[in-house]
């Protein structure tokens, strides 16, 4: 394997079918899955874009049409995960707005935990992939560089939900605190999950969110 992430085949403008003994993979998710297999087998640092392209049966040029850099493949599911997260939060906000929750309201902090569990726990079938991805996100500097952008999207979603449901300004200290605390609890849950191999990720999420519950009230009252 080579050492340069940015090396590009002298290659063909159009992929030539089966370059590596398998059909060409020409969408972002398929390329990311192929890359993850190589990361698991050979290590992140040891795997180059050229290696990924060769295994996928495409040119490096095709890889760069989908991803700016090797580290970006780790985040390929982020848009879909944030969409699921937002759906959970929006449903709770809608129920609160229409009075469709039990007397006493609903706990916004628990809703945020529910959203993380629904969006990030990919189940037993994907556990090996998900654990390895978590290790890369938590420990690999090249992957962490993109994390700042992704975490900002999660925080913005949390902040919008909290500000709407608690009827306070999005820039207020409680909203900012809860948004950052949510990210911290999620990261802590993943650290716990990597250390506790027998615990599902969702259990780790709920455990960490309970331990890191904000001191301020997060109860959404019915309207």
UniProtKB/TrEMBL annotation:
Molecular function terms, GO-annotated: DNA-binding transcription factor activity; transcription cis-regulatory region binding
The entry's keywords: DNA-binding, Transcription, Transcription regulation
Bias (Acidic residues): 1-12
Domain HTH tetR-type intervals: 25-85
Entry-linked SUPFAM superfamilies: Homeodomain-like
Family annotation (InterPro entries): DNA-bd_HTH_TetR-type_CS, Homeodomain-like_sf, HTH-type_TetR-like_transc_reg, HTH_TetR, MftR_C
UniProt-annotated stretches for the region Disordered: 1-22
DNA-binding region: 48-67
UniProt KW Ribonucleoprotein keyword: no
Protein name: TetR family transcriptional regulator
